[in-house]
Specification:
single chain, 455 residues, two-stranded antiparallel ribbon, 20 helices, 4 strands, globular
């Protein structure tokens, strides 16, 4: 009872009171309807949901020729610096780290597909970040946001939710590839059983409104994996691979900035810009809708500062030796935990830093343990689906395409591109040109160019 009483007193205390901790005042924690404890837990939840990038990003970049250890150090450094900037400057509860789509584009399209040296490909990353920064500093983002109809904004949130849920199922082996049906249920093995138990436990913790429900779910699943992995399933073994290893900065400043400025490389720079810009924008829109992180005008809070951080994170990533950093949709784990301020991002950044030396400890949390949290985040992000006007088919069809194509194409960008294109085509062919704002015309055209140049 005393704990609940103290929490009530803390919530009722004005955020500018001299007795209020300076962290609470700086981040306006109480005014955002949160508490210091909630923000710390939310930061931990997001870190646990997104920490896989520390080892997954280097695994992908090593296919491009970047040494694994160098890519790992670069991943930790950019995640630490950019998340810290997002928290202190933009004051939003958002993780910024090397994006999964961007690293795949870097490795399998630019390096392996087009034959660019990885140093030159990093140059393309740098110039796409420069262009992103220019867009972020002007009102381009505001014009684009105002041009996107509400139905598509809601659809982007829902589509990303389904995409995140699909990633959770895939990471857990709950959904696997099937040559006959494309996808199917995985084998009923110890890994799948562990995931299912963890998913149900996380759902029950959430329904019971337990504080730190997602973290409890991750911890529960990890504990279940201990005996499961040791007795029956090697793929979910919680391993001890040592305590520490030294960082590797051999890829730092290996970027070929001027070699990337060739006409033949401009399409690659554009595709990176398009993907990064709209992935970031869509993530901001989705998180703003799902957690009401909006300003007085109904737009995502501190959007200009957030996009600026994202843009400069992309620029800095290249000299550090990794593909572009961007907003992580796994930030929804912390938002779902109740995180509402930049303190969440500061906590995330600080949690990344020790893994410059402690990366072997990541093996203690198997991928199957974070998968249930991703599934629950997808559930939370489906809430705006009821706000789409499904009876108006000129609004519903583009929204439906955006929602369904994100998980089916395994690409947030493709879902957005087809949603924008279909909206413009439908309005054009039905004589409703007044519904298409100038920025929407430009966005649809860029979507078409992106689809042509990447297929």
């Amino acid at each position: 009872m005393q704990q609940g009483t103290s929490a009530s007193l803390e919530a009722s205390r004005p955020s500018d009171s001299p007795r209020t901790p300076w962290l609470v005042r700086y981040f306006n924690i109480e005014r955002r309807g949160s508490t210091l404890r909630t923000e710390l837990l939310a930061g931990l939840a997001t870190f646990l949901a997104g920490m896989y990038i520390i080892v997954v990003n280097p695994a992908i970049l090593s296919d491009a020729g970047i040494p694994f250890s160098a890519a790992l150090s670069a991943t930790v450094m950019i995640s630490f610096m950019s998340s810290l900037a997002m928290g202190l400057y933009a004051r939003n509860p958002i993780l910024v780290a090397p994006g999964m789509g961007m690293n795949a584009l870097f490795t399998y399209t630019l390096v392996q597909g087009a034959g660019l040296p990885w140093q030159t490909a990093l140059g393309c990353v740098f110039w796409s970040g420069v262009m992103f920064a220019v867009l972020a500093m002007f009102n381009v983002r505001k014009a684009i946001i105002e041009a996107i109809p509400d139905s598509l904004r809601f659809a982007i949130t829902c589509g990303i939710g389904l995409f995140i849920t699909f990633i959770g199922f895939k990471n857990a082996g709950f959904v696997v590839a099937n040559p006959a049906t494309l996808v199917s249920l995985g084998d009923l093995d110890p890994a799948l059983i562990t995931f299912f138990l963890g998913m149900m436990a996380t759902a029950i913790f959430t329904i019971l409104r337990l504080n730190g429900a997602l973290i409890l779910g991750i911890a529960f699943t990890t504990l279940v994996a201990l005996p499961m992995g040791r007795l029956w399933g090697d793929e979910i073994v919680v391993q001890w691979n040592g305590l520490a290893s030294l960082p590797d900065f051999s890829a730092v400043m290996q970027v070929d900035v001027w070699g990337a400025l060739k006409v033949a490389y401009l399409p690659f720079i554009f595709v990176m810009l398009f993907t990064n810009f709209f992935d970031s924008l869509s993530c901001f829109l989705a998180l703003a809708e799902s957690a009401d992180l909006k300003d007085a005008d109904g737009n995502p809070r501190n959007l200009k500062r957030s996009m600026t951080v994202d843009a400069f994170a992309s620029m800095i990533a290249a000299p550090l030796g990794t593909s572009a950093a961007q907003t992580f949709i796994e930030s929804g784990a912390g938002v779902a935990q109740g995180g509402r301020t930049g303190l969440v991002a500061v906590v995330i950044g600080l949690l990344f830093l020790p893994f410059l030396f402690l990366s072997p400890l990541l093996s203690l949390v198997p991928a199957v343990a974070t998968a249930p949290a991703l599934v629950m985040v997808g559930l939370f992000m489906m809430a705006p689906v009821r706000q789409i006007e499904w009876e108006k088919f000129d609004q519903a069809f583009p929204a439906f395409l955006a929602i369904i194509l994100m998980p089916l194409t395994y690409s947030i960008t493709l879902g957005i591109a087809f949603g924008f294109l279909s909206f413009v085509i439908i309005k054009l062919c039905t004589g409703r040109l007044e519904a298409i704002r100038p920025a929407m015309w430009v966005t649809a055209l860029l979507s078409a160019v992106m689809l042509v140049t990447t297929q």
